[in-house]
Write a structure and sequence with these properties.
The complex is a heterodimer. Chain A is α/β, with parallel strands linked by helices. Chain A has six helices and seven strands, in the order E-H-H-E-H-E-H-E-E-E-E-H-H. Chain A has one domain: Aconitase, domain 4 (Alpha-Beta Barrel), CATH 3.20.19.10. In chain A, strand 6 and strand 7 form a beta hairpin. In chain A, 52% of the residues are buried. Chain B folds into two domains: 263 residues, Aconitase, domain 3, CATH 3.30.499; 153 residues, Aconitase, domain 3 (2-Layer Sandwich), CATH 3.30.499. The N and C termini of chain B lie far apart (48 Å). The chains are: A alpha/beta, B alpha/beta. Chains A and B meet through helix 4 and helix 6 of A and helix 2, helix 3, helix 5 and strand 6 of B.
C-alpha cells in the first residue's frame, strides 16, 4: 500500500450508484483479457449525467475521447457512493482508469467490501462535505499514516476517518493476500 | 444475551452462542449463488488464487442461475454463458441451470425460492445485490462481489460484520389497493437510500404475516435500496408450507428475542398508507400516486425479481382485464415457472396471459431484461427521454437503459392502471 497518495481530484455528488460507475451494457467484457480490460477504463463513470460529472462546474469528462486512463486519480464524492448493484466491475473500472483512492462521505456496503477485499481503490470516509470545498482538478495529497488529505491547490488539510478494522486487509492488498498472511486459506 | 433473528442465524453460522452487532465474524456459508454477469469473473479469480485445478469447496452448495443477458445477440454475453457452462461441467455443479435447455429457470432470486434453495436459518451469499430477497424465508441472504465469492468458492467461508437491526412493524389488515411494493417505497421515503447501510431490516406485524411469500420477497428484495445488508422476516406457517412443498432438507426456525436490541423501530398502520411511487432518479424520492397523477408516461414495465412474480401479475391482471393499454407495456415474467403460470392461472375465467395480450401488452421471455438496461437489443430497454412506470427496483439515472429517461418505481397495480391511461394513475380508480 502506498503511504502517500497524490493526484488530481474528480468531484461527484451523492448516491453515485454502480450503474453510473459502469453502465450495465458494458458488464460483458472480460475482466482478465488485457485487450478487453481496458474497455472498463474507457467507460468508467460514463453513466454519470454530463452536468453532474466534474463538479462544481460539471460537464468535465472523466475520460477523454478514446482514452482508457483518466487524468483524475482521486474521486471526491458525497454520501452513499457505490450504492445499487453488487458488480465488482465498478471498483475494477475505476482502478483500470487509474483511480487510487476514493474519498466519500459514506459508502454502500457491497461497493465498500469490493474495494477492500478486491484491493482496488482505497475507500476513505471524509468527516465533512469535501465535495463542496474541493474542485475537480485540484491537486490532492493523502497521508495514510496521519489519515489526512491536503488540498495542494488551496493548502487546506482535512481529516479522514481511519480505515479501522479493514486497514489490515487494505494494507495487505485484498482479502486473499490478507488471508494468506493470517493462514485462513486452508480449503475445508 | 438477547439477540435479533439476524444475530441468531449468524451466531449459528459462526459456531458461536452469541454474536454482537458491530463485530466481524467468519461465517460458514450454506449456499453461494452466482449468475452470468458475475460468475465468469468470480471463476477467474477462484482459479488465479486457488490454482488452475482447484475444486470448489462443496459442489452441492454452489447454485448458478444465468438470468441477466439471455435473449440478446450480444456475443460477449453469449461467451459469459459458455464460461458458466464450462465451469459447471468441470466442477460437477449439479445446480447449474443452462440457457437454451429445459433446465433454464430465469431470474435467480425468484428461482432460488421456487427450487427450494431458501431454507430458514441458513446463510446465503450471492454475487447480486438483490440476494437479500431470500430473507423473506427467515434466513440470512446478502450480496457480495466477485472476489468475496471466489473466496467462498475455495473455502466455504467469508467474514461479515454483524449488523445492527432496524425493525419495521406493519399493523392492520392490508387493503386491496395496497401492495408490499407500496410498503417498501414508503419505508425508503422515510429512511432514504442509505438509511439502513450495513444494517438488517427486519419486518414484523400482522400485515406482513398476512402476505403470501412472493409479496414478502418484494419487501426483503428492496432492503438493498435502503443500503441494508439483509432484509428478514421470521418464517411462519406460510413460509414453512412453501419450503416443505419444494425441499426435503432440514431447516431451523429462528425469531428475535422480545428484548433484543434494535438500532431503531418504525411502526405503520397499513390502513393509513396509500399507493406511492419513487420518482426519478432515486428509490427514496417518494410521492403518493395521487399527488403525481396525470404525469405522462411513455412505457409501463412489469417484471424483474421485485415485480415479475406470479402475485405481481395477478394484481396487474385484475386491473388490465377488459382494458386496453395506451402505452407500450412489457410483461416480463421473472422465471419460466411464472411464465407457465401466466397461461394456467386465471382471473375471472380468463388466463392472465390472455388478459395481457387482449389489453395490448407484449409478453416477453423470462430474464432480468430491461430492469438494468442491458445490451442494446434488450426487450423493454428505455430509449431517449422515455418516462417509464416500472415494478422494478432502481431508478438512478440510466438504470433502465437511457441516461435521459425517467423511471417511476411503482406497484404492479399502479403500473397497470397507469398503462391504461398513459399517465400515472392511482389504482383505486380501477378497483
Amino acid at each position: 500500500m502506498e503511504t502517500i497518495i497524490q493526484g488530481k481530484a474528480y468531484v461527484l455528488g451523492k448516491n453515485i450508484d454502480t450503474d453510473q460507475i459502469i453502465p450495465a451494457e458494458h458488464l460483458v467484457y472480460s475482466l482478465s483479457d488485457p485487450a478487453e480490460v481496458v474497455l472498463y477504463g474507457k467507460y468508467a463513470l460514463s453513466g454519470v449525467p454530463p452536468a453532474q460529472g466534474g463538479l462544481p462546474e460539471g460537464n468535465i469528462p472523466f475520460i477523454n475521447g478514446d482514452d482508457v486512463h483518466s487524468a483524475f486519480t482521486i474521486i471526491i464524492a458525497g454520501p452513499n457512493f457505490g450504492c445499487g448493484s453488487s458488480r465488482e466491475h465498478a471498483p475494477f473500472a475505476l482502478k483500470v482508469a487509474g483511480v487510487k483512492a476514493i474519498i466519500a462521505e459514506s459508502y454502500a456496503r457491497i461497493f465498500y467490501r469490493n474495494c477492500v477485499d478486491g484491493g482496488f481503490a482505497v475507500p476513505y470516509e471524509c468527516t465533512e462535505h469535501l465535495n463542496q470545498v474541493i474542485n475537480t482538478g485540484d491537486e490532492l495529497r493523502i497521508d495514510v499514516a496521519s489519515n489526512t488529505i491536503e488540498n495542494l491547490s488551496s493548502n487546506i488539510t482535512y481529516k479522514l476517518n481511519p480505515l479501522g478494522s479493514v486497514f489490515h486487509i487494505v494494507e495487505a492488498g485484498g482479502i486473499f493476500a490478507y488471508a494468506r498472511q493470517e493462514n485462513l486459506m486452508a480449503q475445508s | 444475551m438477547a439477540q435479533t433473528i439476524t444475530q441468531k442465524i449468524l451466531s449459528k453460522a459462526a459456531n458461536r452462542k452469541f454474536v454482537d452487532a458491530g463485530e466481524s465474524v467468519w461465517l460458514n456459508v450454506d449456499i453461494l449463488l452466482t449468475h452470468d454477469v458475475c460468475g465468469p469473473p468470480t471463476f477467474d479469480i477462484f482459479k488465479e488464487e486457488f490454482g488452475p485445478d482447484a475444486k470448489v469447496w462443496d459442489p452441492e452448495k454452489v447454485v448458478v442461475l444465468p438470468d441477466h443477458y439471455i435473449f440478446t445477440a450480444n456475443e460477449h454475453a453469449h461467451r459469459n454463458i459458455d464460461l458458466l457452462r464450462q465451469f459447471a461441467k468441470e466442477q460437477g455443479l449439479k445446480h447449474y441451470y443452462d440457457v437454451g435447455t429445459e433446465r433454464y429457470k430465469g431470474v435467480c432470486h425468484v428461482a432460488l425460492a421456487e427450487e427450494g434453495f431458501n431454507l430458514p436459518g441458513t446463510v446465503l451469499f450471492g454475487t447480486d445485490s438483490h440476494t437479500c430477497t431470500s430473507g423473506a424465508f427467515g434466513m440470512f441472504g446478502t450480496g457480495i462481489g466477485n472476489t468475496d465469492a471466489a473466496f467462498i468458492l475455495g473455502t466455504g467461508k467469508l467474514w461479515e460484520k454483524v449488523p445492527e437491526s432496524i425493525k419495521f412493524i406493519f399493523d392492520g389488515e392490508m387493503p386491496a389497493y395496497l401492495t408490499a411494493k407500496d410498503l417498501i417505497l414508503q419505508i425508503l421515503g422515510d429512511i432514504t437510500t442509505d438509511g439502513a447501510t450495513y444494517m438488517a431490516m427486519e419486518f414484523d406485524g400482522e400485515a406482513i404475516f398476512s402476505l403470501p411469500m412472493e409479496e414478502r420477497m418484494t419487501l426483503t428484495n428492496m432492503a438493498i435500496e435502503a443500503g441494508g445488508m439483509n432484509g428478514i422476516i421470521a418464517a411462519d406457517k406460510i413460509a414453512e408450507e412453501y419450503v416443505k412443498a419444494r425441499s426435503k432438507k432440514p431447516y431451523e426456525l429462528f425469531k428475535s428475542d422480545a428484548d433484543a436490541q434494535y438500532h431503531s423501530t418504525y411502526r405503520y398502520n397499513v390502513r393509513e398508507l396509500e399507493p406511492v411511487v419513487a420518482q426519478p432518479h432515486s428509490p427514496d424520492n417518494r410521492a403518493t400516486v395521487r399527488s403525481v397523477a396525470g404525469t405522462k408516461i411513455t412505457k409501463s414495465y412489469i417484471g424483474s425479481c421485485t415485480g415479475g412474480k406470479l402475485t405481481d401479475f395477478m394484481m396487474a391482471a385484475k386491473i388490465l382485464k377488459g382494458q386496453k393499454v395506451a402505452v407500450t407495456t412489457n410483461i416480463v415474467p421473472a422465471t419460466v415457472q411464472v411464465a407457465r403460470s401466466l397461461e394456467t392461472e386465471q382471473y375471472e375465467g380468463v388466463s392472465l396471459k390472455k388478459i395481457f395480450e387482449d389489453a395490448g401488452c407484449s409478453v416477453a421471455l423470462p430474464s432480468c431484461a430491461a430492469c438494468l438496461g442491458g445490451p442494446a437489443d434488450t426487450v423493454g430497454r428505455s430509449v431517449d427521454k422515455d418516462v417509464v412506470v416500472s415494478t422494478t427496483n432502481r431508478n438512478f439515472p440510466g438504470r433502465m437503459g437511457s441516461k435521459h429517461a425517467g423511471v417511476y418505481l411503482a406497484s404492479p397495480l399502479t403500473a397497470a392502471a397507469s398503462a391504461i391511461i398513459g399517465k400515472l394513475t392511482d389504482p383505486r380508480d380501477f378497483l
